[in-house]
Amino acid sequence: MANATMTPGATSGVAAGKPQPQTTVEPAGGPFVRHTQQGRRSMYVQQTSFGGIITNPMVASPGYNRGYRVKTTFATGGGTGGVISAGAGGQDAPYSFYQLVQMKDAFGTPLLTGPGYEMCKLVPMFSGQFGTDETQDVQNLPSWTGLTAASGAGTFQTYFPFEFAKAYGVISGANASLLPTLQLNNAAASTIFSTAPSVLPTPSTQVDADFYWLPEGVAVEPPGIGTTCQYVYQPCNPVIPSNGSLTIQLPRLGGYLTVIILELRDANGARVDAWPARPRIYVDGVPLVDSDISTVFDDMAIGMQIGGGVAGSVTTPSVPQTPRPPGVIAFSRKLGLAQRHFGLLDTGEEFLSTNPGTQIEIAGNPWGTISAGPATLNAIVGQVVPSGALIQGLPEV
């Protein structure tokens, strides 16, 4: 006789689509990063065109956004005969495909604003908010194939960051009505090519969001929620004549500075290494840096792993570092733990505190030779604007 309590086979399975019990829950207490996990989700994939504009809305993610992964692909249409421009657009290719990048938070505050080269290459390279060591240059990532001149085919990925220390600076992503916005203005083909391929490649842009899950079973928020780290490309004044001796004023700021990126471009927009032999940086008239330019290059190699390294030989292995982009120098303030930065691991103790009255200047006596003068000094400054007091120490501990 069958057991009367036996459950019929037709009713013994797990209901379709029923989620499994959450097994990653931690006991209450401790920092936000103990109770969350890192995730990623798609925002959109958009086929676009040279000279077009991408304004796709973002979608919600179940947590707090850390930043956007952006993949740009140029699919060849079988064209031939392309020649990369010798001008600024070719020098900055393939990043110069984005003539302007504008990323704002849900309230319209600019988080990243500037041309593609500065936002797609220099910010990830010098901010410490993406890769580390050689991988902080997006050109060193496995996904990077560059741009084939003849056909225009190529691929590169980059990162538009929110997070500047572990879990600090993230943006709420779960509210679909309060999401960041990203606008990408594409350059014309003539910006990159002096002779365009017979058939232009078809560009497409893919955007994914890196995020932290909402913690399960415990009420805990990321540290300093509402704090942002902003990068805005701004020209400095006045312009610089060849071999001129003068002091250049950076735009007025107002926050805690994480890195000062300085870029020198000639009258044609090309990056040039016409730095003074001994640049001097003043904060409110007080010298902060008075250094031989070769020592500045050494500091970048020591502190940011950029511009150093030696070639290998039969008996000595190579020691690679990311090459320093011509026309660019940077001063990091993310050195609170050592003489080098460690990406998102930083205490914020050495961030430079400024307010709208702070005046930062760089003097050259003289500046270098500029064949196509005058040159313009541009500043891309990492500026933390905290909600409340800045959290110093290790916010994730």
Show the helix and strand layout.
Blueprint: H1 32-35, E1 38-47, E2 53-54, E3 63-75, E4 83-84, H2 88-91, E5 98-104, E6 110-114, H3 116-127, E7 146-147, E8 154-161, E9 171-172, E10 181-186, H4 189-192, E11 193-195, E12 202-213, E13 228-235, E14 246-249, E15 256-265, E16 280-283, E17 286-290, H5 293-304, E18 309-310, E19 319-320, E20 328-332, E21 352-353, E22 360-364, E23 376-385
Parallel strand pairs: 6-13
Antiparallel strand pairs: 1-12, 2-10, 3-8, 3-9, 3-12, 4-11, 5-6, 5-10, 7-8, 13-23, 14-22, 15-20, 15-21, 15-23, 16-17, 16-22, 18-19
- What is the 3D form? globular
CATH fold name of the largest domain: Adenovirus Type 2 Hexon, domain 4
Just name the CATH architecture of the largest domain.
Answer: Distorted Sandwich
What class, by secondary structure content?
A: mainly beta
Rg, nearest Å: 24 Å
Largest sheet: 9 strands, mixed
What pattern of helices and strands is seen along the backbone? HEEEEHEEHEEEEHEEEEEEEHEEEEEE
What count of helical segments does DSSP give? 5
Structural domain count: 2
Mean pLDDT: 91
Strand percentage: 25-35%
